[in-house]
Amino acid sequence: METRTITKEQILNQLSRLEPPQWGEVLDFIGYLEHREAQRVEQPHRSEMTARDLLRSKLVGIWADREDIEDSLAFARRLRRQAESSRDHGDDLHRH
Description:
Low-confidence stretches: none
Number of helices: 5
Distance between the termini: 14 Å
Structural class: mainly alpha
Strand content: under 5%
Shape: globular
Radius of gyration: 15 Å
Mean pLDDT: 80
Order of helices and strands: HHHHH
Largest sheet: none
């Protein structure tokens, strides 16, 4: 697997291609990444979260105030499909 350095400019360029209503999803994903990194630093020996860990995390209720998400389960499934699709087909950020 090829490892390339991704610049802030590339990320901002990709962000500028999104419609403003999608920016909330980007912020949610950034929040997830920050949480995942914090968990890795706090508990480097654990690779899986327990139900208790999940309930104590900031992930539960992350979309509670989002007015654009009517069905959070369907929304999460769509995000997973999009992530899997971009991973399977190669993400534009990783191809440059």
